[in-house]
Design brief:
Layout: H1 3-9, H2 34-41, H3 46-54, H4 58-69, H5 73-86, E1 94-100, H6 106-121, E2 125-130, H7 134-137, E3 157-160, H8 168-184, E4 189-195, H9 200-205, E5 210-216, H10 228-233, E6 236-240, H11 247-261, E7 274-277, H12 286-302, H13 305-331, H14 334-348, H15 354-370
Parallel strand pairs: 1-4, 1-5, 2-3, 2-4, 5-6, 6-7
Length: 371
């Protein structure tokens, strides 16, 4: 490059401006991040997922959970392999189910509970949800996880809304599989939350070690509004908003629940469910709840019920899984799909009984399998 050219390009390098040098500019990178493009192409393999999860990489854990929730068969295939390889690393946690009617202050409570548990016992906490109502409204309860203000920004927490696709059985299975992945990633405390409506309690109960039921003291007929089945599942009942003017009412409600619990047969665990009052908002009485949960854990680990219950749950999920896949196989069979409406019409017209129609369909299905 000639000296002259140099000066034209950068007149400030002229003799007259001695002592001031301006270096030639550096080459600017393209406006598109090259790494983004490159990363997109490379799909993670099963070993990539497993390695990332076991290292506790939350981004990879999230991606794996997304695969678990996906309905695409190719995603499901990878997900199942990842789960299988993560199984040996799972199981070392305590799993707590948390249920309460809408308005019971569950989000505030989980926020307070989560912080207490992390501060007191260390470790990492995953909060998962099973929300069958998200099917209808397409919005999950946890959709606004912002309500767990402190927990959602806590470095040791992982919050995952309910997978909204599919039946309660499908959503529950996916949540159970997510628990395995979270445990493999080192989350030793798992909360599974659900709304106190319908069958979702049973699903949560089938995957947790301790079932906590959040209630409110209100009108004095607390016990009317609560289903017996849920009462029988609870290992502990806690009454929220025991503060200010509501304190006496909460205490009264606690007494009513205690009396009601005496009417039920003692649970298999040999543990007597306790009733406590607290305030999630003011963080009063939270420590006592978790002292209770942990003393329950010690109790059931000593008497063998902890392992027994986990084994029962594994068995239950094996059969659930078989039932789900058989059902899918049947309904997705092209011959069955073609025949269903016809048989249904014959039953409704009174030309066939329900039982014969079902038998015809099943015979068709089994014959088709033999081919």
């Amino acid at each position: 490059m000639s000296d002259n050219h140099h000066h034209m390009e950068h007149p400030e390098n002229d003799e007259a401006y001695k002592g001031l040098t301006v270096n030639a500019g550096i080459e600017q990178p393209a406006s598109v991040n090259p790494y983004l493009v490159r990363r997109k192409k490379r799909e993670l393999t099963v070993p990539d997922y497993v390695e990332g999860i076991v290292k506790g990489d939350v981004t990879i854990l999230s991606q794996a959970v997304t695969l678990v929730e996906s309905l695409k068969p190719e995603h499901q295939a990878i997900a199942q392999e990842v789960i299988e390889k993560c199984l040996p690393y799972s199981g070392e946690s305590i799993r707590i189910g948390i249920s309460g009617v809408p308005g019971a202050g569950k989000s505030t409570s989980i926020d307070a509970f989560g912080l207490h548990v992390l501060d007191t016992y260390g470790g990492k906490l995953a909060v998962l949800a099973i929300d069958p109502s998200s099917e209808r409204s397409k919005g999950s309860i946890l959709g606004d996880k912002t309500r767990m203000e402190k927990l959602s920004v806590h470095p040791k927490s992982f919050i995952r809304p309910s997978p909204s696709a599919g039946s309660l059985g499908g959503v529950a299975r996916k949540t159970r599989e997510t628990i395995i992945l979270c445990e493999a990633a080192g989350f030793d405390k798992i909360f599974v939350e659900t709304v106190g409506v319908g069958q979702s309690e049973t699903a949560v109960h089938s995957m947790v070690d301790f079932f906590l039921l959040i209630q409110l003291a209100g009108t004095g007929d607390e016990l009317q509004g609560i289903k017996r089945g849920i009462m029988e599942m609870a290992d502990g009942i806690v009454i929220n908003k025991a503060d200010g003017d509501n304190l006496e009412r909460a205490k009264l409600a606690a007494t009513q629940f205690k009396n009601a619990l005496h009417l039920f047969p003692a649970p298999d665990s040999g543990w007597n469910p306790q009733v406590l009052t607290y305030s999630g908002f003011y963080n009063i009485g939270v420590k006592e709840i978790w002292d209770m949960v942990y003393s329950y854990m010690d109790f059931v680990k000593k008497n063998g019920y902890f392992d027994y219950r986990r084994n029962e749950q594994s068995k239950y999920w094996m059969y659930e899984s078989i039932n789900e896949q058989l059902q899918q196989s049947f309904y997705q069979n092209p011959k069955i799909e073609a025949l269903l409406a016809q048989k249904e019409a014959q039953v409704l017209n009174g030309n066939l009984t329900s039982f014969i129609a079902a038998k015809n369909l099943l015979d068709t299905y089994f014959d088709d399998l033999k081919k």
